[in-house]
Prior knowledge:
Blueprint: H1 12-26, H2 31-38, H3 42-49, H4 57-67, H5 72-83, H6 89-98, E1 101-106, H7 117-130, H8 135-148, E2 159-165, H9 166-170, H10 176-190, E3 195-200, E4 214-218, E5 224-229, E6 234-237, H11 240-256, H12 260-275
Amino acid sequence: MAEADVDAQASPQVRFGQELRRSRRARRWSQTEAARHLGYSGAHISYVENGKRSPTRPLAVKADEVFGSGQRFYELWRRFSRAALLEGFAEFADAEARCRRLRTVGLIIVPGLLQTPAYARALAQAAVRRGAITPTEADERTDYLALRQEVLEQKCPPVIHAVLEEGVLLRPIGGPQVMAEQLRHLEDLAERPNITVQIAPFAMGENLSFTLPVVLLNLPDHTVVGYAESTARGHLERSRATVAGWESDYDQLLVEALPKAASQEMIRKARKEDRS
């Protein structure tokens, strides 16, 4: 059966499959032989090659290893993952990966860079249960978050300052064990010299200066951009006047929030109470 021609540029998933087929045929391997080298079933490789199953990060990494392709499959997987993101988020993720300083406000949940894998999976699985995303899209979200979090392990990681509303510590995401692990992770991250975590207590009341999560990014060219999102889309804000207003609100938030030591104690207390 002749293979149908497709517009690879319009479908990152199909492009990945085409590259996998091309690399396999260059080695004169059948799908079964390729599957054996890649550690997957022949049926799985067939589905991926035909664009009927989403590529995953482990498959991309293994394909680059097996075919000696540098990071070609990894980059194709990144493009595929970004295509499934909230509108505007991919642009933010690019800026996040390059930033020198990141300031963030967490109001409902722990910000992505600070989440544990189990916490992130619990959020993604809840979205699946609501019918908002598919199980495959849930996997893509958690895989992409792991990729974003690699910025924390760079030789020169960005300076990160996170202010979390007290409710973030108390909202039981994923159950007691997942939540206790997440709170411990926040404690550990806050001990790093480049990461500060402060808690905005309920007692701040109307003085909490943000009603939506916001991120401020200092880029290598010394510009500062902001990011905020609704349920429908994200927006990377470049207007200097708008960003300056957000920075002013953030500075005020730092004054009102608990100091670093008191914030650590509140996180520790929430973790112990959650386990009791």
